[in-house]
């Protein structure tokens, strides 16, 4: 059969392609120049936040009815991927804004959506997600943070750990136990504001990678919030948290894709320039095979991630499997690809004068957060399509 140019399966729409080009240009102009300093100084990438907010790319997933761009799941993936290609820390701005606010989008009352999604869309405050605790990581249902009803209020007490962008975000989706007898069915979700009395933050964690994105503990000391800040019905918080992760694991896959693409792009350029034995090292078959494997793994991860994003948009039955598979596969691929990029640069790859060692350090967390890759495999096995 002759080529059919209008055969649109397995390729991005024109709008998605244009979005990628727009974000790539912005990322290279406004975010990339600061990436090394952000990592070196372990400081929040304010330049990236300003640039993303000015271009309305900081929280593209917010529906148009609340003042957002109303971007679909694939568009959100493209934004995160292109930002992560130059700076993984900065890609956590759109990614965690989605993670933190998606429980409100999925389960919140109309009033709650209006109250919090509008400011998020405008860029008046970021959103973080508080699920993990010191003793409740992979076993999130074992959390101890409590919320006790007091008239028209709930009073929260507890500690959340590993909270991305804590201290910078204005808003926090917090999971807390409202009925200790019911384990996961006794967990409810709430919106807590940074300015609520009794909210405080621990010191920033000293991390291997994503150093520009602050990770801190969040403390709740008799934090009294109005009852209408509960997200969904009492006892549905854990179900909302899990449903959220089905969608947002795909954003971690996107982050992994971007990091890996950045490393591959850099390594590809380097092997064409670096000469040994009288010719570019890219002419040696051993090097070519490494690049071929890197590109192949990356493309396989990208196809899986984009397919998962389409399922996220359509909310298909096998989304749980595909979300876990995309996150797991893409993050494992990113770790392999960035490690190989360091190898291809030799001794230079091991120094901070070149970006690939940063990318390798940044890639590691994608195998750990939003559910370790061991947990992803459990999720996949329980949800085989």
TrEMBL record:
Family listed: Belongs to the acyl-CoA dehydrogenase family.
Cofactor list: FAD
Keyword terms: FAD, Flavoprotein, Oxidoreductase
Pfam families: Acyl-CoA_dh_1 (PF00441), Acyl-CoA_dh_M (PF02770), Acyl-CoA_dh_N (PF02771)
Residue span(s) of domain Acyl-CoA dehydrogenase/oxidase N-terminal: 13-124
One GO MF term attached to the UniProt entry: flavin adenine dinucleotide binding
Originating organism: Streptomyces albidoflavus
PANTHER family tied to this protein: ACYL-COA DEHYDROGENASE, ISOVALERYL-COA DEHYDROGENASE, MITOCHONDRIAL-RELATED
Catalytic activity: a 2,3-saturated acyl-CoA + A = a 2,3-dehydroacyl-CoA + AH2
Taxonomic path: Bacteria, Bacillati, Actinomycetota, Actinomycetes, Kitasatosporales
Residues in Acyl-CoA dehydrogenase/oxidase C-terminal domain copies: 235-384
Protein name: Probable acyl-CoA dehydrogenase fadE25
Gene3D superfamilies: Acyl-CoA dehydrogenase/oxidase, N-terminal domain, Butyryl-CoA Dehydrogenase, subunit A, domain 2, Butyryl-CoA Dehydrogenase, subunit A, domain 3
Residue span, Acyl-CoA oxidase/dehydrogenase middle domain: 129-223
InterPro entries attached to this UniProt entry: Acyl-CoA_DH_CS (IPR006089), Acyl-CoA_Oxase/DH_mid-dom (IPR006091), Acyl-CoA_Oxase/DH_mid-dom_sf (IPR046373), AcylCo_DH-like_C (IPR036250), AcylCo_DH/oxidase_C (IPR009075), AcylCoA_DH/ox_N (IPR013786), AcylCoA_DH/ox_N_sf (IPR037069), AcylCoA_DH/oxidase_NM_dom_sf (IPR009100)
């Amino acid at each position: 059969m002759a080529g059919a140019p209008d055969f649109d399966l397995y390729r991005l729409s024109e709008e998605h392609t244009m979005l990628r080009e727009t974000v790539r240009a912005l990322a290279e102009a406004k975010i990339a120049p600061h990436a090394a300093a952000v990592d070196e100084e372990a400081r929040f990438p304010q330049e990236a936040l300003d640039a993303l907010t000015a271009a309305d790319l900081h929280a593209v997933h917010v529906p148009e009815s609340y003042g957002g761009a109303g971007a679909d799941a694939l568009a959100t993936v493209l934004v995160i991927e292109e930002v992560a290609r130059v700076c993984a820390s900065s890609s956590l701005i759109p990614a965690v804004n989605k993670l933190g606010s998606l429980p409100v989008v999925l389960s919140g009352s109309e009033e709650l959506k209006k109250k919090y999604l509008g400011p998020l869309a405008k860029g008046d405050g970021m959103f973080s997600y508080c699920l993990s605790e010191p003793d409740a990581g992979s076993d999130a249902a074992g959390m101890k943070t409590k919320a006790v009803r007091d008239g028209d209020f709930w009073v929260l007490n507890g500690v959340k750990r590993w909270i991305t962008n804590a201290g910078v975000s204005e808003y926090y989706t917090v999971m807390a136990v409202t009925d200790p007898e019911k384990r996961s069915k006794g967990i409810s979700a709430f919106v807590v504001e940074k300015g609520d009395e009794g909210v405080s933050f621990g010191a920033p964690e000293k991390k291997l990678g994503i150093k520009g994105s602050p990770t801190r503990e969040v403390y709740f000391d008799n934090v009294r919030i109005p009852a209408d800040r509960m997200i969904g019905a009492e006892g549905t918080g854990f179900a909302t948290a899990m449903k959220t992760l089905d969608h947002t694991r795909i954003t971690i896959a996107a982050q992994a894709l971007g990091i890996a693409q950045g490393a591959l792009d850099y390594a590809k350029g380097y092997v064409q320039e670096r000469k040994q034995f009288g010719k570019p090292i890219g002419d040696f078959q051993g090097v070519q095979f490494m690049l071929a494997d890197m590109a192949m793994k990356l493309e396989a991860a990208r196809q899986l991630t984009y397919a998962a994003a389409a399922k996220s948009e359509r909310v298909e039955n096998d989304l749980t499997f595909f979300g876990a598979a995309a996150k797991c596969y893409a993050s494992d691929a990113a770790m392999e690809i960035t490690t190989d990029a360091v190898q291809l640069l030799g001794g230079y790859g091991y120094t901070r004068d070149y970006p690939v060692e940063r990318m390798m350090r940044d890639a590691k967390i994608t195998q750990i957060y939003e559910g370790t890759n061991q947990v992803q495999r459990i999720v996949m096995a329980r949800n085989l399509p």
